[in-house]
Structures are given as C-alpha cells and as structure tokens.
Amino acid sequence: MKKTRILTGLVLAVSAFLLTACGSSTKEDTSVKDIQKKGTITVAMNPEFAPFEFKTLVNGKDTIVGSDVELAKAIGKELGVKVKFSSMSFNNVLASLQSGKADIAISGISATKERQKVYDFSTSYYESKNVVIVKKDKLADYTKTTSLKDKSVATQKGTIQENIAKDQLKGAKVVSLVQNGEMINELKNGQVDAVVFEKPIAQAYVDKNSDLAISEIDLKSGDSDAYAVAMPKGSKALKAKIDKVITKLKKDGTLDKQVQEAYDLSVSSAD
Ligand code: ARG
Fold first, then answer.
1. N or C end: fewer C-beta atoms under 10 angstroms in the chain?
2. Range list of H helices, 156-230
3. Residue owning the nearest CA to atom 5 of ligand 1
4. What is the CA radius of gyration of the chain?
C-alpha cells in the first residue's frame, strides 16, 4: 500500500515536471495577440535622424515625422492597432524592448550579428553606407581613412558608427555623444574635426549647413548594416506580419518615395 502511494506520488511528480518542460518548449507565440489585445503598438525611436525620423512643426505642433514613422503607421494598420511613438536617446532604443517599454523599435537600426543575438529583426528595408562629414574648408585635408590621425571624430552613442570610426579611422580620437545635433554643433565650432553618419543623414545635415560637407574618405560597411525593425526575441508571428508590410512597401516603390518625401521635408523645415 505504502509502496504504491510513493510510486503514484513519483509518477505524478514526473508527469508534472514533463508537462511544464513541454509547456515551455512549445510556448505559444503571443507577439501579435498581445499587441492586438492592447489595441496600441508602442514604437521606440530616436527622432533626430532625418529623413527617417525627426521632429518638425505640423500645424504649429511639434510632431515626429519621417519614413520610419510612415513604416510604423503601415505596421499599425496591418495589425489593426493604433501607433504610439516613444521618443528616447538612441542608446536606449533597443533596451526599451527588453524592459517592455516598447513593442518594436524603428530607428534606422542596423540589424548587426551582435544585435541579432539579443533581438529579432524584420527583413531589411534600407541600405546605407557610412560617410564622414567635415568643415567645408577642410575638405582637401581629410581625404583618406588615415587623414584624421590624432583628430577628434564624433559618433552617436550606441550606434554602429562608434566601431566603424574606431576600426577604420586609424589613430583618430573617437568621442561618443548622445545627440546628433550636439555633434553637428561641435563640428561647426571646431570642438571636433569630423562626424560619422550614414549617407542620407549626413546629406540632410550638409544641405542645411553650408559650412559642412561630405568628405571623400571611403568607409567600408558591414554585410548586416542594413536597417530593419527590431522586436523582442520570440516574435516570430509579429515578424511575419512586419515582413509582409516591408516587402510590399519595398516592391511597389512606396518606401523609396517616403524616404525622398521625408528628405525634402527635412531640408525645407527649420530645426
Ligand atoms: N544605423 C545605425 C545603428 O543602427 C545608426 C542608427 C541611429 N538612429 C537614430 N535614430 N539615431 O547603429
């Protein structure tokens, strides 16, 4: 009698263990359902990155605009939910997915191998190469990756440009700043000698600042530097939805058109 009881207890314990073990391995992917239940998708971004995301006055109101904003709206439409933008510094954008402050992050984020270990990424939606901005009157001095030896180069904190500058601009002193506007100001007043940005962002700044120019210094890009939407790990269902949206916007040319329109808007608008 006693023996069977022990045995039954054991069987129960083992099956309970098996159930939980199996349960967690086949854990249901609720990435889409969770957002739909809330009725709102919260998108993390650093809106200091024209033409992808930046602030401008729309009908007298400070508003976040740009092609990433349009992409977020299309994703919201596909999921049938409202879109809320959560603005923060770039070095907090990805972490906000882990803390649950945001559901997805769209911020011109390069889907690097390192980041892919921690986050899920959509299919890529934009490829851009890196360039170096300098003062226009210094263009002739800075032509090669070695020209900035012992000079100060600014990059945005938490971006891939930090490593690109460190690895490729031999002997340069790389400083990381949180705000892109601050980097541009430091370049204009001579506190730093160069700034590394991806081409469209550099072009937007240069077009608004006639004392700055894009140098001919040639920087190499990594093969996973293209922009993608970031999600928490385990967002397979959500990724499928977002990939569908991106594929469509890319195929029919909408995405390129939105980047161009946002670019025109950023150049014509005051900061
Ligand atoms: N593509 C670069 C990266 O992922 C820079 C992104 C910066 N984005 C921004 N909105 N400030 O590191």
1. N
2. 160-168, 180-188, 199-208
3. 159
4. 23
- Cα 11 to ligand 1 centre (Å): 54
CA 252 vs CA 128, 248, 255, 262: distances in Å: 20, 6, 8, 18
| Residue 168, C-beta contacts closer than 8 angstroms, at least 6 positions apart | 145, 219, 220
Distance CA 251, CA 261 (A): 17
Give the pLDDT score at 23.
47
Residues belonging to the chain: 271
Half-sphere exposure of 92 (CA within 13 A, CB side): 16
Residue 49 CB–ligand 1 contact under 6 Å: yes
How many whole angstroms from 68 Cα to the centroid of ligand 1? 12
Report the atom number in ligand 1 closest to the C-alpha of 46.
Answer: 10
Q: Which helix (H) or strand (E) holds 54?
A: strand 53-58
pTM for the complete prediction?
0.90
- Ligand 1 centroid to Cα of residue 228, in Å, is 11
4 CA distance to ligand 1 middle (Å): 64
Segment 75-113, tens digit of pLDDT: 999 999 999 999 999 999 999 999 999 999 999 999 999
| Omega cis (within 30) before 200 | no
Structure tokens at 102: 């945001």
